[in-house]
Design goal:
His_deacetylse_dom, 8 strands, Acetoin utilization protein AcuC, Arginase, Chain A, 37% helix
């Protein structure tokens, strides 16, 4: 399906490191790249480097004063609670500005690849830091790289950008930055804010002309329910909105093994979502697709397999779920982490689901969540909320 796919990568992207006890461990990205390389996935894409985002570029989405505060923390390594650095979620560390600016620059490189037409799809798996706000770090995120990519594209002349966020946590930072901008459609599917950080992302947060869309799913939702919700909301809105470019965030913390959340997806269900978004990029955005990583805190069993599937899907060469992981990679996992690696690229699940068009069950909490979203935003897009 892809004409060209580009992976933005620099080994220094692993320098975004809040310390050995922090859940956002850079080894997850290191293991992903090693797995993708060992399975030949990286042979099917173009690898490209990146430069750090400049202060002028960062100021497209962040206050200048905030950037200066992060730079001071970067030099001293000391907390500055005024900018959100020095909390348990966002520890201060020396070099934080440089590490964060490089991740932001990687997503800018992906955006530039798509805008200039040098690639049809591009991915920054180290990115997806969607909680960072204009003037404060939040939720493990310092600079909001997806928002920066979107803002840069708008500045180049893009008329409409759609952003779909499948992280288990609400994509609050990206939503906040474009909440009143009808050129940007943000869609976030996440665990209910009643049970999970950041406590936002209710269906009635609808933004400018219904361009903020939130599907708040109940704890315990698995593959079938999640995919039912996705297909009931995302395709109709993307087909109606017709974005120039699709930007997606792929936090894989919706997995059943993730220690920080309560959804129950499998790697197989996540892989199905990636395939659906790939199709939608071609159906609604002329194939122009920018993807990022995001959350994901089961560092060995989940993140490397999920994002290797993402890169393979982006390349147009999906991996058979039954494919074994390589012995070379398993050895690397044991040496690097001391943990037992997964043996195959599947959890052995069949991620089937029933479309909402087959009937709405008011007793089902997933259907109630879906209908709350459809009722809130579909009429604002000229769509019928009744399935």
């Amino acid at each position: 399906m892809s004409r060209s796919a580009r992976v933005i990568w620099d080994d220094a992207l692993t320098s975004y490191n809040f310390g050995p006890s922090h859940p956002l461990a850079p080894v997850r990205v290191e293991l992903t790249m090693a797995l993708a390389r060992s399975l030949g996935v990286l042979d099917k894409v173009e690898m490209a480097g990146c430069a750090s985002a400049s202060d002028d570029e960062l100021s497209m989405v962040h206050d200048r004063g905030y950037i200066e505060s992060v730079k001071r923390v970067s030099v001293s390594g000391l907390p500055d609670l005024g900018c959100g650095l020095g909390t348990p979620d966002n520890p201060a560390f020396a070099g934080v500005h440089e590490a964060s600016a490089l991740i932001a620059g990687a997503s800018l490189a992906a955006a530039r690849s798509i805008w200039e037409g040098t690639a049809e799809h591009a991915v920054n798996i180290a990115g997806g830091l969607h909680h960072a706000m204009r003037a404060v770090a939040s939720g493990f995120c310092v600079y909001n790289d997806p928002a920066l990519a979107i803002a840069w594209l708008l500045a180049q002349g893009a008329g409409r950008i759609a952003y779909v966020d499948v992280d288990v946590h609400h994509g609050d930072g990206v939503q906040a930055m474009f909440y009143d901008d009808p050129r940007v459609l943000t869609i976030s599917l996440h665990e209910s804010p009643r049970t999970l950080f950041p406590g936002t992302g209710f269906p009635d947060e609808t933004g400018a002309d219904g361009t903020a869309v939130n599907v708040a799913l109940p704890a315990g939702c698995g593959d079938a329910g999640w995919l039912r919700a996705f297909h009931a909301v995302v395709p109709p809105l993307l087909h109606e909105f017709r974005p120039d470019i699709l930007v997606t965030q792929h936090g894989c913390d919706s997995h059943a093994l993730d220690p920080l959340a309560n959804l129950m997806l499998s790697v197989d269900g996540q892989r199905a979502a990636y395939a659906a978004l790939h199709r939608l990029a071609h159906e609604t955005a002329g194939g122009r697709w920018i993807a990022t990583g995001g959350g994901g805190y089961e560092l060995v069993q989940v993140v490397p397999r999920a994002w290797t599937h993402l890169i393979a899907e982006l390349a147009g060469h999906p991996i058979d779920p039954a494919t074994p992981t390589s012995e070379e990679w398993r050895r690397f996992v044991r040496e690097r982490t001391g943990e037992t690696p997964p043996l195959t690229m599947t959890d052995g699940r069949n991620p089937e689901f029933h479309h909402l068009s087959g009937g709405y069950d008011p007793a089902d909490p997933i259907d109630r969540a879906v209908m709350a979203t459809r009722n809130a935003v579909f009429p604002l897009h000229g769509l019928d909320p009744i399935p």
